[in-house]
Design a protein that fits this description.
Layout lengths: L6 H23 L19 E5 L3 E7 L8 E6 L2 E8 L18 E8 L4 E11 L2 E8 L13
Antiparallel strand pairs: 1-2, 2-7, 3-4, 4-5, 6-7
Pfam family, one: HSP20
Protein name: Hsp20/alpha crystallin family protein
Family: Belongs to the small heat shock protein (HSP20) family.
Length: 151
Amino acid sequence: MARRSNPFEDLAELVDRLSQEFETAARSWNPDDTRGGFGWSLEDREPSIDLADHGDTFVVTADVPGYEAEDLETRLSNGTLHIRGTRSETDETTDETFIRRERTTQSFDRRVSIPEPVDSDAVSATLNNGVLTVRLEKAEPTVGQVGIDIE
C-alpha cells in the first residue's frame, strides 16, 4: 500500500517556497532597499533557537552571529528565558565613502518557555563563534514528604 503524504507538510513546504520567492522578488525590485518591496525587513531576523533536554539540564542554543557578549542580555523570569540583543553600527568617523552600506542597528527579543522548574542560581551562559549557549539546571524534586502548617 502506498504511503500518503501529510497535507500539512506539503502546506508548510509551499509556504516556505512562497516566502523565499517573495524575498527574492523584493530584493530584485530595489537592491539598495533592505526593506524589500512589501516593507518587510529582509535582514532583521530573530535568531534560531534550540531547546534540548539533557536529563538534569536544559540547554538553550541560539544563533547570534555578529553579536558580542555585551550586546546580549539574558534573564530568567517565571519559567521563561528572555534573550535580547542589540547591535549598532560603529560610531567611528572615517573618511570612507560608502558605495553601499547595509549594516545598521539591529535588535531582537526572544522568549523560550522552559517546560520544568529550574534552579535560578545554577544558570550559566557562554558565547562562542556567534552561538549563545544557556545551561539551566533542573530544580531538585522534593524528596519525601513535606509537612504544611495550617494557619
